[in-house]
């Protein structure tokens, strides 16, 4: 398995249990480890068999910014 590591991605979102935490978005730092087999992409040099890092980051950001979770555990 190959590992993709995204470290300290800064997003803004609603998170927390107190009223003042839920009034406006706050900074959330996210680190993600993704394990995936990229053998075919490495052998073929075919981008369609790999992971698009930009898409991955965009999806993490979109979810985190709109989830409105109360706990970090739920967001994770």
Please tell me about this protein's structure.
The protein is α+β, with helices and mostly antiparallel strands and 76 residues long. It has three helices and two strands, in the order ββααα. It has a two-stranded antiparallel ribbon with strand order 1-2. The chain is elongated, with a radius of gyration of 16 Å.
Looking at this protein, list some descriptive labels.
alpha+beta; single chain; 76 residues; two-stranded antiparallel sheet
Fold blueprint:
Blueprint: E1 2-13, E2 26-36, H1 39-44, H2 53-66, H3 72-75
Antiparallel strand pairs: 1-2
- Beta content comes to 25-35%
The number of helices is 3
The global form is: elongated
Helicity, in percent?
25-40%
Average pLDDT reading: 95
Instruction: State the separation between the terminal residues, measured CA to CA.
Output: 22 Å
Low-confidence stretches: none
Let me know the largest β-sheet. 2 strands, antiparallel
Strand order of the largest sheet: 1-2
Order of helices and strands: EEHHH
How big is the Rg? Answer: 16 Å
What is the number of beta strands?
A: 2
* Protein structure class: alpha+beta
């Amino acid at each position: 398995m190959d590992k993709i590591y995204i470290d300290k991605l800064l997003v803004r979102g609603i998170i927390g249990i107190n009223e003042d935490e839920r009034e406006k978005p706050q900074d959330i730092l996210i680190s993600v480890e993704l394990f995936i087999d990229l053998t075919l992409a490495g052998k073929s040099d075919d981008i369609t068999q790999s992971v698009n890092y930009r898409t991955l980051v965009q999806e993490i950001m979109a979810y985190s910014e709109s989830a409105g979770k109360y706990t970090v555990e739920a967001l994770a």
